[in-house]
Amino acid sequence: MSIDNPGRRELMLAAGAAAVTAFVPAAVQAAPVSASRSALGARLQGVQHFGVTVQNMDRAFAFYTEVLGGTEIMRDGDFQGDVIHNTLLLTEELDAAQRQVNPRTVGIPDLRSGAQRLDVRFIQFDNVVIELLQYRDSSQPQGNGASFAPPTEKTSPAYPRSMHICFYIREDVDFNEFVRDLEAESAKRGMSNVRANRIISSRSEQERLKAPLNTMTNRITSGKSDGWTLIYAKGPEGEQLEFVQVRGQAKRVFGEAIETRRRMLAAAQ
Question: PROSITE patterns of this UniProt entry (predicted)?
Fold first, then answer.
């Protein structure tokens, strides 16, 4: 199956456009950028999606749709062949060859021969799209089949090259209760590995769970970040997540940045 599918591409572009326009004010959307401008930034249309490679597609999909409330855009899969292999994995394959190691032994799947396959699902949130990817052996079923490679253990944001997904929480939502309910709803589905940090130290998992409700969020009350509330959590695949509320001074800072960009785009016409 070829990944260069016009229908799929149009659907992804439409989803990306929806993700961008849901977040950017109409004044910014209405400001076209001249095609003659050479700056790379002038040729972009915003963020299309964030991607997470998962061990269990069905489990991850249940978390992002049932627990966090995203909506499925589309799913596709069984991707294999030379073109898709080179498109996604050529750099890693060349690096393995340079180190004189078998690509398979370091977790690089073989889409080229079809020994492994790639499945994807896209999930829409209010202002962003998340793509779930699973690499599996061809003998494994789509969805809940075993993943081809073991998960990386280094998902902490402290590590260079690591990434995370950040979700907005509405301003009228009690942040502490949200975190409590996030863990509870995940546990109901067997995802006890969905865990949020606390703002106080814990010497054990039991202590973390017993921490008071008001320790589940970090509320910043000074400087330009005044009004920013956050917590970090692990998702069902061990992926790094962040949840934030933006109020007060922090909200004004971000609003001014959007307005500044609007004026910059308008002036470029």
Answer: TAT
